[in-house]
Amino acid sequence: MTGIVIVAHTPIASAMLSFAEHTFGVVPERVRAVDVPPHEDTKVSFDRVLEAANGVSTGNGVLILTDVMGATPANVASKLEAMGAAAGLYSPVVVLAGLNLPMLMRCISHRAENLEELAHKALQGGQNGILRLGSKVHPENIGG
């Protein structure tokens, strides 16, 4: 089973995991959340993400979901992906940025997939979960 670590700005990661617990009735197996508070030293954040990744790893890979590309959570996760075994994680890592709830639900539902297939399904779930609801906005209906 592929492990999943949610790494995001405080309190997004924990809120995402709480949503999964609400949906599935339990905290899903091999899924962890790491909230990164403002001004936390990146070494501290990195160590916490490494600990979470080791906690969910079975050797089949770890999928790390982050909120915003280029921000500290994504940068810390990308560093772990780049370092791998040199950091003490003996499992392949894939990092995806742009986390949303449909992406997370897809990941949890397909954790039996290999790491690359799970990453692909996560991307599809995230993209397919972004929809426009309701009727079109017409320029004449916009105040101004």
In short:
The protein is α/β, with parallel strands linked by helices. Helix content is 44%, strand content 16%.
Can you identify the CATH class? Alpha Beta
Terminus-to-terminus distance: 54 Å
Supply the helix-strand structural class: alpha/beta
Q: Order of strands across the biggest sheet?
A: 2-1-3-4
CATH homologous superfamily annotation: Phosphotransferase system, mannose-type IIA component
Q: What is CATH's topology name? A: Rossmann fold
Helicity range? 40-55%
Number of contiguous helices: 5
What's the helix-strand series? EHEHEHEHH
Shape: globular
Secondary-structure arrangement, i.e. CATH architecture: 3-Layer(aba) Sandwich
Question: How many structural domains are formed by the residues?
Answer: 1
Mean pLDDT: 94
3D architecture notes:
With 144 residues, this protein is an alpha/beta fold. It has a single domain (3-127), classed as Rossmann fold, CATH 3.40.50. Helix content is 44%, strand content 16%. The protein contains five helices and four strands; from the N terminus they run βαβαβαβαα. The protein has a four-stranded parallel beta sheet with strand order 2-1-3-4, sandwiched between helices. Helix 3 (72-83) links the parallel strand 3 (62-66) and strand 4. Helix 2 packs across helix 3 and helix 4 (101-109) runs antiparallel to helix 5 (115-128). It is globular. The termini are far apart.
